[in-house]
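Proteins fold reproducibly. Consider a sample protein:
=====
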Amino acid sequence: MWNLLWPVLLLVCANTVYQVTAKSVPGGINTYASLLVTYLVAATASLVMFWCTAGGENLTGQIKQINWASWLLGLAIVGLETGSIFLYRVGWNINVGSLVANIALAVVLIFVGAFFYKEGISAKQLLGIALCLGGLALISLK
């Protein structure tokens, strides 16, 4: 059970810190200057975590095995960070903006899973999509 639970807890905790800090990035600073520092910290933390978990693996050897996914993931992360910072800069509240984005993401991923990974879509999921879209409409109304 713990193997299923800890990644969810990590995501919730990290995403909470992420949203609070994204909202706290000063409005006058260039977004990409802020992201540069963010990625330098992330790179340093990743290097330390590699050293702590490598078990004798060679970093150069590991990097040689990386495929296109790591490169695209890096670009996607820049999009996530930029979107989150601007989400708050344009006036979304922290209790609504992230919720709207994450519900929309969940709905999109149901279809991505169905079309690209041949995952089924159940009647319960379709009902969930309808409820999510209804919820999005309700919380987005001013």
About this structure: The mean pLDDT is 94. The chain is about 80% helix and 0% strand. Residues 7 and 13 are 10 Å apart (CA to CA). Residues 94-117 form the longest helix (24 residues).
